[in-house]
Amino acid sequence: MRTIHSNIVQFRGTHYDFGFEQGIEIKDSLTVKNRVKQWKVRKPRFSVTEQEVKDAIVRFAPGIWEELLGLRDALEWPMEQVLMEFGGYRLDYVRSGCSIVTGDNYLIRNYDYHPKTYEGRYVFFQPTDQGYAMLGPSQRVTGRMDGMNEKGLVIGYNFMHRKKPGDGFICCMIGRLLLESCATVTEAVVMLKEIPHRHSFSYTVFDKSGKTFVVETSPRGVEVRESTVCTNHFEIMTNENRNYLVDSYRRMDIIQGQKHSLKDANQAFRLLNDSDKGIFSDEYRNWAGTIHTSAYIPERLEAWIALGGDQEPTIFDFESWVAGQDLKKDQITGEVDTDIHFVHMDENATWLRKDKV
User: Does a structural domain hold residue 305?
Assistant: First the structure.
């Protein structure tokens, strides 16, 4: 077992200033140093123009473009490098796991992925220029793995496959676009139908109404269904599914079998976070180990997160934060059973063969 952490980031102000502040924060970080090395092995398979990315982002959330400009100025990078690292458009995404369950005023989500991609930032942002205040773990700085905004909209996503990619946004940027601009599940569903999708994912959206929609998306189509459980396969666009889905169906069957006995968010959280319940995964080497479990309670704007399994969650009162009360806590800690390097904590968290797995 090893102790890991996520740093808590709090910011109130314009998108540009937020981008600049984050650029200063990460400029000399292990995350940036490791990712520079990672690109030497995983060469980008695309070329993209600045105007193309700007047009795509500004259509849905213009403030995010300003955030990218702030990152550029703080990092003193060419815009092409900023977009390749943080733009969230026409990038590639590797396989992952993830499980989601919703119930009476809660959404619980396991984020299953590879430690060398986890940047360890839990972000609170209240923009003063445009867009909704939000919180959630970040991915590629500008993106969100899951999260909730001030209106009580909650989002999480589940990987399906990355074959036949299209010209569009990757999952974490789509999560950010939804939180930035949508107040309800209805608005989120509409946007998910309009957003161009790079890969195939399901997005689960939940809000104070108690309704849950699972939106199956790919570069070739979008389908919407109501469901309280989502793992890693499509129910409608089955022709898009991968061939091997045994573990996805196994986790879904466990959750559905326990749904009737889940009385509250705490029991649902334990079902996903406890290592003996069958949902939590330690398959870190296979890009499917549970790094964090998130919970969102939109009715009272409360968010929970635990790093690793068998953990008590750290609980945040987002309503108080939106009202102006800053957090005194600056870090979340937990434990995971792996010796794999984390990109934000370890040197040589790269894909080079000479580096440790």
Answer: yes
- State both tokens at 324: 């102006």
Q: Which domain holds residue 275?
A: 2-12+93-336
Q: Please tell me the predicted confidence (pLDDT) of residue 314.
A: 98
Collect the ranges in the chain with pLDDT lower than 70.
40-47, 93-95, 351-357
92, 351 Cβ separation under 8 angstroms: no
pLDDT cut 70: percent of the chain above it: 95
- Phi and psi angles of residue 163, each rounded to the nearest 5 degrees, phi first: -75, 150
With the CA atoms of 190, 195, 198 and 201 taken in that order, what torsion angle do they form, in degrees rounded to the nearest 10? Answer: -10
The rounded distance, in Å, linking the Cα atoms of 279 and 248 is 10
Helix pair 62-75, 15-26: axis angle to 10 deg: 40
Q: How far is CA 231 from CA 137, 197, 265, 269, in A?
A: 19, 19, 18, 16
What is residue 45's predicted lDDT score, i.e. its pLDDT?
55
User: In this predicted structure, what is the pLDDT of residue 163?
Assistant: 83
φ and ψ at 52, to 5 degrees? -65, -45
Q: Residue 357: its pLDDT value, please?
A: 47
Burial profile 97-131: b = 16 or more Cβ within 10 angstroms, e = fewer: bbbbbbbebbbbbbbbbbbbbbbbbbbbbbbeeeb
CATH code for the domain of 234: 3.60.60.10
In a domain, 7, yes or no: yes
Residue 233 CA to its chain's centroid (Å): 18
- Whether 50 is covered by a domain: the verdict is no
What are the phi and psi torsion angles at 250 (to 5°)? -60, -50
